Sequence to fold (872 residues):
Amino acid sequence: MSSDWLSKGLRSWRAVVITAVTTAVAAALVVGAVSFPGLVEAKKNELRTEVPPGELDDYYGFFSGGHSGEVRVLGLPSMRLLKRIAVFNVDTGSGWGITNESKAMMGGLIVGDTHHAHASYKDGTYDGKYLFVNDKANNRLARIRLDLMETDRIIKIPHAQGTHGTFPQRYPQTDWVVLNSEFRTPVRNVGKGDMKDAATYGGVHTIVDANKMEVIAQVTVPCNLDLAATDYQGKYSFATSYNAEGGATISEMLAKDRDWLVVFNWDAIKAALKKGSYTVVDGVKMLDGKEGTGLALYIPVPKNPHGVNVSPDGKYAIASGKVSPTASVIAIDKLADAFAGKIQPKDCIVAEPEIGLGPLHTTYDGRGNAYTSLFIDSQIVKWNIQKAIDLYQHPKEGETAVVDRLDIHYQVGHTMASMSETKEADGKFLVSLNKISKDRFLNVGPLKPENDQLVDISGDKMRLLMDEPSYVEPHDCIIVRRDIVEPHVLDRAVMDEHPLAVHKNAIEHNGKKVTVHLTANAPMYGMQEVEVNEGDEVTFIVTNHDEIPDLSHGFCISEYNVNFALGPFQTKSVTFTADKPGVYWIYCTNFCHALHLEMRLRFMVKAKA
Amino acid sequence: MRTTVGSLLVLLLGMVLDLHPRPAAAAEEGLVARGKAVYEVSCVICHGPKGDGKGLTGVIHRAQAHGVVIQLYPRDFTAGMFKFRTTPTGYLPTDDDLLHTITEGIPRSGMPSHQDVALADRQAVIAYIKTFSKRWQEEEAGTPVKIGKVPTYVSTAESVKRGKELYKKVGCFQCHGLSGKGDGPSSDTLKDAWGDKILPFDFTSGTLKMGSGAVDIYRTFVTGLDGTPMPSYEESLDEQQRWDIVSYCLDLMQQWKPQVVQQ
Fold:
């Protein structure tokens, strides 16, 4: 059999045209998908601030999506938005909130408020496996698999409201994730007793098993708990508390000049759990963490603190009071003595430099400098930690730890430097996540974008590089080196990981339940028609059998409010009642082939007699 | 009288010989015509009006390995050569083989299932497909290879171990790679009977086109995939050796199934 006559065989002109189109589409799909690792990476020690077309970024940025309920993936330094990962929100593009798989995780909720996305760790740096993100609105924790960049698990955090600060264990690896409840409530919040008596309320520090995604225990405290951090030794977690007063109104919450940085002692928590020193409430082990129990240490820090961040060398936790112009530097190596009662909690503070108005969050360059966001001043302030400590011990007139200031636009909340939440902080880039953009972009009406600004921190002076508008409302982000994440990311799912992956097209009738097992391969679904009866409960399970990267299919049922997208080898399913009789076209919504438009099948619903 | 009787017999015989084929041929013609009608509704878009796999769809399937994109075309019926059969290598498939492929489709290819097409129509289209190649007039379809029950030792540790040895010794790894990823030393050089580049199966990638069960894999070892570099091992290996390699293939596929995430 010669290959010549076949390959050189005459084709009709239509075939030639179609083939040319097909080939072009194939080429387009493929070119977009093939990456050439190493080709465009920055030269060693050279800070690349621009990414020309066709080249790839040096960092992944994982941004929370605020009350959009999602998580976003950006490339840095280009600040290009690469992906929106639906988590707590409905996303009709991917089908999140529509498919059975996502609905099972979402439990009927469609509102989410993501604030802090942090990745899993091994030995103090990211391992590239998971991302954890909180839902402050409906009090949940989600885990995102970084190999697929899709949400993997969602769990409910009991006894908590305002589930805010979220941080994974950094050492030796992420076995625990801790979450803080920012809003104090009655622990059993069931509307009984005197609900107005805020003295009966409490906050909880929740410990979650990162692998099983189960709540291990909750530590109750009298105060509220805001931002979270963990140390680099697997010994402590931290929480700021801006309501040491236990107040219910803003005046009450601002009464004291000092609130707390609460430190949780993990060895003591483990011992208490082992000893059985807990009560079980609604099936959850609850430990009492009030002062004197040895589980938590209450370090007085200036007023109404918000952020707490641990320096990459593991030595200091730095918290800032929103209405105090200072940052408090807590020496982590003093905590053991404080827990043992050898020193007072306040003795753990080794510096309190005055840095500016409205200090919130601190990030690091790995060269001994801290960068704190100043909400009121609209600045990032760079200051030297050791100098602040020295000046705290030996104040010198006219000397300051502040090294540099950069105006940002405007009202910065979080700020994060590249790799800053790991022991590998590299001091190259910093993102200033500004709450207000005002006049920085074309006017798009009353509800304006936020402004995430990219800053070069590789030199002595900070340098503003770029404005990036973002939709409501990234609070926080982490910036992760490409080489940590990229090797884990898959071009195609592992087909049989989904227990219902379709290998054989079939329609199963079981009384009024109809299950359709369907494959998708460009440009065809595995069947051309499906017939059911009005009132049947129909489940479609669809598997994309195309294996080349980026050849995704969509699955939309006309008039039936169903759509989802499937990457190569992915399976998704949907169940609904066939309540509209008639012929409805199911069609592919994700452009897949020159004959993409023809990729459809008839869904025929036979009317009741 | 004898002559008369003889003549009558000859005449009768002639009539029988002459008349008998007529309804059969007509039935066959009817079947082929019906098959053509079905083909032109359901098959022509890929397999083309001449059955040569040059339908309007063009490339039906693209696979990728090691950064190289490989284009696969719909089956060319004019060659009368079929990969997925129950018959020994070199033999035509049975009607049941063709019916199976038409009915179930081929996963991971553009060949969809046709269970929504009436059985009689699927059978008719088989008759029509056979008109594209002379092989169907010149040769008989093969007899399905008999495959007994799956031996109890399949998938045991010992069998996997023996299979792994054979996988190396027989040379499976040359194409399929030591880790089963389809990246063996010759994997980049393979071509099919049409001269098109072809990829060896990547055991870590998902389902096999004709099923991923033990029997399905064993069947491939005794039938080969005609028109591709995958030969039959009916002669060169004994039954136990074939089942041992089945064990190893299943092991390769299993290894790459990730831990199912607890839901």
User: Anything to note?
Assistant: The radius of gyration of chain A is 27 Å. The longest strand of chain A covers residues 125-135.
